[in-house]
């Protein structure tokens, strides 16, 4: 147990300021002397607040002057009926006496603090009072009781949103867990305190946390880490305090004793002892004498070791005065009486509220019964009308819903009929023309009347007609199959680049015929999980559309983009592009309402992009379109990659 750190915590939980150790309150005293110079001290809250500020400043230096100013603030607060002034002053007196080791006096002032804070529902005061009880319990090795009181203080500090006090609460919980030998939790709360203090620049809390963490790591055998933490306190440019430096120097002495560097241990122990004696902190003096005794003994300096041992035992005896426990227990019982009285007052208030509520309830019931009799008669007629209206509304709703369903089905049937009629016209007209041309070309082949140049032209035209007609027929057949029974994909691992190469072997000649440059940037790793035939049809339709809507001399670029688990093939052209209206209907409609002629009046079925959308969904792929009228189009297909 280390009550010295508990005392430090007390200072912080009541709102100590960050920065270097404060000087005595000369500025505040100047204000007080100015008020007294006139011979008439103003009896107002501003004067009380000034007295409390002076008392608090003296308390930080453990000066008895704090008693005078705090007690003066209490007398004036009582006179002008200013409870907040009394609460602040009693908190200061409680802290002062605790720091000096006068626990009985500290608890007496704390008792008044709790009484006033409970009466006036002052959460700041209650947080201070419960915190003080927790600290006193720690001096008595009552860790469970200390943990209970400190957690109550945390509750009140969270209610007031006091971040510095919350950070200090975490520090104090670290001390409790250290005392019950739970170093993991002790370290966790010390780190939590440090992390909470950094954003609000509570440098004193940061120094305290570093000191405490150094002590924990020293006990865990992590001496190097402990030494770094102690030095960080001594060399801290933001905050310097003799109390913290005393602890840090003594901690360094313990670390060097552990690694058997006894000369340094003696040197650091003397530095820690000197600072502890300057500020009169018994716990630190006792601790410094202990390590000085052990280090001197290890060096063979038995005289210094013996003298240090005597001093250590002297301070230990003075700190272990058992008579304090009886006095503390007596005052603790009075604290519990205050809490019980507060609970009794709350219960009485609750009972009064319940009695009033019962009377109001009876009156309301009498009035309600009278009204119910009248309302029942009206209600019966209203219920009868409501039932009839409900039946009528339900029937009207059913009719409306049925009509809406009929309208949706009619629209679907109309779209299907229009598409079917359009496809029949394609088969009867658009496909009959290319097939007739193919037959005529075949007759010319058979006749053998063509020279070499004419033969080349006819062969090229023949290939283009056959490819286009086959693509139209294939789209019609796949659309019909999907409409009839649905297509079930056969998912396997396939190469996206290989499929694109297969499609381009067919369509590159058509591009050459239109003097279109088609560039394919192959991807080294392009294996995907998909149905090979459906992927081929998707790429075939996208490439065919790019050729169809790109003018002579244009460019088509096919590239790939990969991520950790996807691959995207992009077919980009600098063709005529699409209007926003056409782009919006691209995947929603089929047939003549979406089909348009190409740059050479090439016709189509209007099914291509609808099939691309349908087949993409069946392969868990995503299709996207980026297009602007007159600027070309980019069609992107994204698939799942196969990761080796």
Provide keyphrases for this structure.
Serine Threonine Protein Phosphatase 5, Tetratricopeptide repeat; Heat Shock Protein 90; disordered N terminus; 644 residues; 5-stranded mixed β-sheet
Number of helices: 23
CATH class of the domain at 441-640: Alpha Beta
Q: What's the overall geometry?
A: elongated
| Extended strand count | 7
What do you see in this structure?
The protein is of the alpha+beta class. Among the domains are: 3-198, Serine Threonine Protein Phosphatase 5, Tetratricopeptide repeat; 441-640, 2-Layer Sandwich (Heat Shock Protein 90), CATH 3.30.565.10. The protein is built from 23 helices and seven strands. A five-stranded mixed β-sheet has the order 2-4-5-7-6. A hairpin with a 3-residue loop joins strand 6 (622-628) and strand 7 (632-640). The longest helix is centred in the middle third of the chain and has 108 residues, at 323-430. It starts with a helix and ends with a strand. The relative contact order is 0.05. The model is unreliable at 1-23 (pLDDT under 50).
Quick structural gist:
By secondary structure, the chain is α+β, with helices and mostly antiparallel strands. 36% of the residues are buried.
Task: List the topology elements.
Layout (H helix, E strand, L loop, with lengths): L2 H11 L12 H12 L7 H16 L4 H16 L2 H17 L3 H17 L3 H17 L3 H18 L2 H17 L3 H15 L5 H17 L3 H12 L7 H17 L3 H18 L2 H18 L2 H18 L3 H108 L1 H16 L4 H33 L7 E4 H18 L3 E4 L6 E4 L1 H17 L6 E8 L3 E8 L6 H6 L22 H11 L3 E7 L3 E9 L4
Parallel strand pairs: 2-4
Antiparallel strand pairs: 1-3, 4-5, 5-7, 6-7
Helix pairs in contact: 1-7, 1-9, 1-11, 2-3, 3-4, 3-5, 4-5, 5-6, 5-7, 6-7, 6-17, 7-8, 8-9, 9-10, 9-11, 10-11, 11-12, 11-13, 12-13, 13-14, 13-15, 14-15, 15-16, 18-19, 19-20, 20-21, 21-23
């Amino acid at each position: 147990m280390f009550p010295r750190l508990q005392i430090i915590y007390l200072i912080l939980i009541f709102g100590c300021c960050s920065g270097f150790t404060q000087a005595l309150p000369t500025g505040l005293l100047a204000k007080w002397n100015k008020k007294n110079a006139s011979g008439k001290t103003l009896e107002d809250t501003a004067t009380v607040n000034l007295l409390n500020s002076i008392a608090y400043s003296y308390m930080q230096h453990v000066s008895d002057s704090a008693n005078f100013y705090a007690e003066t603030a209490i007398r004036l607060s009582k006179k002008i009926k200013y409870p907040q002034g009394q609460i602040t002053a009693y908190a200061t007196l409680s802290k002062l006496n605790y720091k000096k080791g006068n626990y009985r006096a500290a608890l007496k002032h704390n008792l008044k603090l709790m009484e006033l804070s409970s009466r006036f529902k002052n959460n700041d005061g209650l947080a201070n009072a419960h915190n003080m009880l927790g600290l006193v319990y720690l001096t008595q090795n009552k860790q469970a009781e200390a943990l209970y009181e400190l957690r109550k203080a945390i509750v009140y500090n969270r209610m007031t949103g006091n971040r510095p006090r919350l950070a200090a609460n975490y520090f104090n919980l670290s001390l409790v867990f250290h005392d019950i030998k739970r170093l993991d939790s002790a370290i966790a709360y010390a780190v939590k305190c440090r992390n909470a203090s950094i954003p609000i620049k509570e440098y004193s809390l940061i120094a305290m946390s570093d000191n405490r963490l150094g002590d924990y790591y020293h006990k865990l055998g992590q001496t190097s880490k402990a030494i770094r933490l102690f030095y960080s306190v001594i060399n801290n440019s933001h905050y310097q305090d003799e109390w913290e430096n005393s602890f840090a120097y003594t901690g360094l002495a313990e670390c060097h004793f552990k690694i058997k560097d006894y000369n340094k241990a003696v040197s650091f122990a003397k530095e820690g002892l000197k600072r502890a004696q300057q500020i009169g902190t018994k716990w630190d003096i006792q601790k410094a004498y202990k390590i000085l005794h052990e280090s001197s003994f290890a060096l063979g300096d038995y005289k210094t070791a013996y003298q240090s041992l005597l001093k250590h035992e002297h301070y230990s005896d003075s700190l272990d005065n058992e008579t304090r426990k009886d006095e503390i227990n007596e005052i603790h019982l009075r604290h519990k009486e205050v809490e019980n009285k507060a609970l009794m007052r709350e219960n009485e208030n609750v009972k009064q509220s319940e009695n009033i509520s019962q009377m109001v309830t009876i009156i309301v019931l009498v009035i309600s019964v009278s009204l119910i009799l009248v309302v029942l008669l009206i209600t019966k007629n209203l219920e009868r009308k409501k039932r009839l209206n409900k039946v009528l509304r339900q029937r009207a709703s059913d009719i409306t819903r049925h009509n809406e369903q009929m309208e949706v089905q009619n629209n679907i049937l109309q779209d299907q009929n229009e598409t079917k009629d359009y496809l029949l016209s394609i088969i009867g007209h658009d496909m009959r023309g290319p097939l007739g041309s193919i037959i005529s070309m075949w007759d010319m082949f058979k006749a053998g009347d063509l020279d070499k140049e004419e033969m080349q032209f006819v062969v090229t035209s023949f290939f283009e007609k056959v490819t286009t007609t086959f693509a139209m027929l294939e789209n019609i057949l796949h659309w019909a199959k999907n409409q009839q029974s649905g297509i079930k994909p056969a998912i396997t691992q396939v190469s996206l680049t290989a499929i694109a190469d297969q499609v381009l072997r067919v369509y590159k000649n058509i591009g050459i015929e239109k003097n279109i440059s088609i560039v394919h940037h192959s991807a080294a790793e392009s294996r995907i999980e998909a149905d090979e035939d459906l992927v081929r049809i998707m790429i075939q339709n996208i490439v065919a559309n790019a050729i169809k809507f790109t003018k002579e001399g244009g460019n088509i670029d096919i590239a790939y983009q990969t991520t950790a688990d996807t691959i995207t093939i992009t077919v980009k052209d600098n063709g005529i592009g699409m209007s926003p209206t056409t782009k919006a209907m691209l995947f929603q409609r089929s047939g003549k309402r979406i089909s348009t002629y190409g740059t050479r009046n090439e016709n189509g079925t209007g099914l291509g992009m609808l099939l691309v959308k349908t087949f993409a969904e069946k392969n868990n792929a995503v299709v996207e379109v980026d297009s602007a009228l007159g600027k070309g189009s980019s069609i992107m297909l994204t698939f799942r990659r196969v990761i080796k």
